[in-house]
Structure formats: C-alpha cells, structure tokens
C-alpha cells in the first residue's frame, strides 16, 4: 500500500513538472488514472482500446517522466530547495527573541514562510 501511494505521489509530482512534454494521449491517460482515479478498464472504454493498451500507454508515460527527471532534475531540485527553505525558516524562528524582533528579520521569516505555504507539496 505504501509503495503504491509513493508511486502515485511520484508520478503526480513528475506530471506537474513534465506533462507538457508528453503526448496528449499520455497526458489524458495519466490524468484519468492518477488524478481521476479511473481504472484501466474505464480508461480503455473511454478510448475504445484494450486494458493492455492503456497499461502500455501509462507505463511508457511514467518511463518518459522518469527519463525527463533523470536528465533535468527539476523535481529533485524543487524538493531540495523546499527542504533548505524549511530549514532556514526553522533556524530563523529559533533565534533569540531580541534578534527576532528586528522588523526586517520578522518580515524575512514571514516572506520565507509564505513561500513554503504558497507552493504545494508534490
């Protein structure tokens, strides 16, 4: 179960970064399967193809997403930057009270925190 959830999250994140680089059919199949939670049979019925054809499209699309990530590393960089940003915010929040009361520093903490909140977890 945990493996499947990780796969769904991974494909979702890669889809967010690279979906424009997929074919229309690959995008539609990934969207239907992972975002709309349709079964292979339901997707096959929608396209008028076999379940095996849908499975193959999904497998190739997932492989393509992984290949783009391997080359471009956009998701890895995004995850790393979010981790570093969260660590910086945490360090700033633990500064002594006198230091944190500097208006400029408080604004920096607010701004950095809002960056973490505005970007969604992928």
TrEMBL record:
Keyword DNA repair on entry: no
Which Pfam families does this one have? UPF0122 (PF04297)
Q: Which CDD domains match?
A: Sigma70_r4
Q: Which residues form a coiled coil?
A: 51-78
- Keyword Coiled coil appears in the UniProt entry: yes
Alphabetically ordered keywords of this record: Coiled coil
- Cited Gene3D superfamilies: Winged helix-like DNA-binding domain superfamily/Winged helix DNA-binding domain (1.10.10.10)
Against InterPro entries, the record matches this protein to: RNA_pol_sigma_r3/r4-like, UPF0122, UPF0122_fam_protein, WH-like_DNA-bd_sf
Superkingdom assignment: Bacteria
PANTHER family, sorted: UPF0122 PROTEIN CBO2450/CLC_2298, UPF0122 PROTEIN YLXM
The record's function comment reads: Might take part in the signal recognition particle (SRP) pathway. This is inferred from the conservation of its genetic proximity to ftsY/ffh. May be a regulatory protein.
Regarding protein family, the annotation reads:
Belongs to the UPF0122 family.
Official protein name in the record: UPF0122 protein SPACI_025700
């Amino acid at each position: 179960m945990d493996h499947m959830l990780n796969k769904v999250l991974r494909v979702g994140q890669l889809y967010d970064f690279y979906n424009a680089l997929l074919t229309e059919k690959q995008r539609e199949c990934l969207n239907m399967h992972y975002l709309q939670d349709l079964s292979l049979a339901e997707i096959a019925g929608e396209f008028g193809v076999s379940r095996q054809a849908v499975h193959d499209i999904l497998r190739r699309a997932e492989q393509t997403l992984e290949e783009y990530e391997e080359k471009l590393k956009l998701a890895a960089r995004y995850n790393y930057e979010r981790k570093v940003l969260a660590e910086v915010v945490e360090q700033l929040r633990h500064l002594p009270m006198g230091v944190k009361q500097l208006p400029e520093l408080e604004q920096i903490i607010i701004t950095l925190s809002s960056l973490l909140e505005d970007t969604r977890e992928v």
